[in-house]
Design a protein that fits this description.
Layout lengths: L5 H4 L1 H11 L11 H18 L6 H18 L7 E5 L6 E4 L3 E5 H6 L3 H16 L2 H12 L4 H7 L7 H14 L4 H17 L5 H16 L5 H6 L4 H12 L14 H11 L8
Parallel strand pairs: 1-3
Antiparallel strand pairs: 2-3
Bound molecules: zinc ion.
Amino acid sequence: MLSFNSNARNAGGILALVGSLTIGAGCVPAISTQQEVQLGDQYAAELNRELPLVRDQAIVNYINSLGNQIAQRADPRGLRYHFYVVNAPEVNAFAVPGGHVYVNRGLIERATNMSELAGVLAHEIGHVVHRHSVEQIQRAQTANTGLAVVYGVLLGRSPSGIEQIGTQVIGSAVFAGYSRDAEREADETAIRFLVASGINPEGLVTMFEKLLAERQRNPGGVAEWFSTHPTTEERIETTRQEIARLPAGSLQNLNTNSQAYADFRSRVNGLPASASR
Ligand SMILES: [Zn+2]
């Protein structure tokens, strides 16, 4: 588990604090895309100060090129996506609203071909496209009117200092984990996004199978992505069935691997471990 998950652990306290700062309950408008991007950018800037991000330009360029190849076809809102490699050995990936997607080096080391990493990216892009974290924030808002403060931040009406709390509320939504339905939706749409991007969707299945096998050998080793992604034989089977339902011929001429991916992965494998975490 990475240190930034303290955001999630502190969620209860933060919500209580936000609640105490609330001025009035009132009716709160839905979060617009523009507001989602504003909040997401703010939260990502905070994460980027905390996480051991890989700065190597060739690595940064490759993951952004692969990720945007998918995101451009996946997200009809035309958001500008940002992809980051985190120098951490755990298998993990997550998405922040507004289009910030983070992948740990531990996951890239296990993704032996391009389509496996692309499968994970497409799944995380699916969470952004379907606004799963944003929906969680909106649902929490109805349960706790204190979250109206978040909207105050979004609308630029909050006093400075409350901003910090607003981004921590986003953090608690991002790291709380998604519902089973949200995971299923992200898997289903990932398959479509991959095919539309010319990438073999079987990579999502083989990645799941690989992580499942590793978990059986070493339960602690791949814990993080599994804790929010309840990968089971059933889920693998569902993904396989989705792929089998695709129109005949749509799986032809799709890419599974590339030299550029092999170069990227060996560069990631060659990175020194992060010193600080
Ligand atoms: Zn997921």
